[in-house]
């Protein structure tokens, strides 16, 4: 299997399946396609657009099979590797975990737009300003904390549904956002975030993101390039 991804520092959707594959030791080859202008004639669009109609990452390629969209990739991996506890074993918990992933997939637009993932950045002043000025971001943050706290209480932790799984990988980029923008959370949520950050797949992604040192202006609404 090949997993096509974008820059680790910025590509939140790429992070999800990569973390999942790495955490569970599933065999795959990483194909990094650096973000560029995204113009129709750009290298990124030429490489990715030749494989999938969306022209976006992540993409899972396995022979003639091409799976786009991070949630579809996660479901495909769960089917391919049923011996791995990617989803909770209990049907009710599994349905709940899927619901949480779907909510992330289609929601939290205010938080995602105002606080794009930028792992190596430290933007606490931006985070404080966003919370003051954008009520929708504060609402997204409140919903996240309620969701995580309820799931942890129901499962007993240490992750949302007990052991690390798809749902935790799915929220790992959100943990990155909350850290970069220093958004305030409860002690219970902070402890969960710390566990996610220290988990093997997430820690490996973060280390490689920090090593990229690739500043992309169009991914940086709050900073200018060094020397600019």
Considering DSSP H and I runs of 4 or more, what fraction of the residues is helical? Answer: 40-55%
Shape: globular
Largest sheet: 4 strands, mixed
Low-confidence stretches: none
Indicate the structural class: alpha+beta
Beta-strand portion reads 5-15%
Separation of termini? 40 Å
What's the overall average pLDDT, rounded? 96
Q: What is the β-strand count?
A: 4
Largest sheet strand order: 2-1-3-4
SSE string, helices as H and strands as E: EHEHEEHHHHHHHH
Give Rg in angstroms.
Answer: 17 Å
Number of helical segments with 4 or more residues: 10
Walk me through the structure.
The protein is an alpha+beta fold and 228 residues long. The chain has helices spanning 12-23, 43-49, 70-80, 91-106, 109-114, 124-133, 135-155, 166-180, 187-198, 200-212, and strands at residues 2-5, 29-32, 59-62, 65-68. It contains ten helices and four strands. β1, α1 and β2 (29-32) form a beta-alpha-beta unit.
Draw up the topology in text:
Elements lengths: L1 E4 L6 H12 L5 E4 L10 H7 L9 E4 L2 E4 L1 H11 L10 H16 L2 H6 L9 H10 L1 H21 L10 H15 L6 H12 L1 H13 L16
Helix pairs in contact: 1-3, 1-8, 1-10, 4-8
Using brief descriptors, characterize the structure shown.
4 strands; 228 residues; alpha+beta
Q: Summed up, what is this model?
A:
The chain has 228 residues and is of the alpha+beta class.
């Amino acid at each position: 299997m090949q997993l096509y991804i974008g820059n680790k520092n910025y590509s939140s959707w790429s992070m999800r399946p990569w973390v999942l594959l790495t955490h569970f030791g599933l065999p795959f080859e990483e194909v990094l396609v650096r973000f560029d202008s995204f113009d129709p004639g750009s290298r990124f669009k030429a490489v990715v657009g030749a494989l999938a109609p969306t022209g976006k990452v992540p993409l899972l390629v396995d022979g003639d099979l091409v799976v786009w969209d991070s949630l579809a990739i996660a479901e495909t991996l769960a089917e391919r590797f049923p011996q791995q506890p990617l989803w909770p074993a209990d049907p009710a918990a599994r349905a709940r975990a899927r619901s949480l992933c779907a909510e992330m997939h289609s929601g939290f637009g205010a938080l995602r737009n105002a606080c794009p993932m930028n792992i190596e950045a430290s933007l606490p002043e931006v985070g404080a300003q966003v919370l003051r000025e954008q009520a929708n971001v504060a609402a997204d943050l409140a919903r996240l904390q309620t969701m995580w706290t309820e799931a942890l209480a129901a499962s007993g932790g240490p992750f949302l549904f007990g052991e690390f799984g798809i749902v935790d990988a799915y929220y790992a980029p959100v943990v990155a956002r909350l850290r970069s923008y220093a958004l305030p959370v409860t002690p219970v949520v902070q402890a969960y975030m710390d566990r996610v950050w220290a988990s093997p797949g997430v820690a490996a992604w973060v280390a490689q993101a920090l090593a990229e040192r690739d500043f992309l202006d169009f991914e940086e609404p709050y900073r200018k390039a060094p020397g600019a």
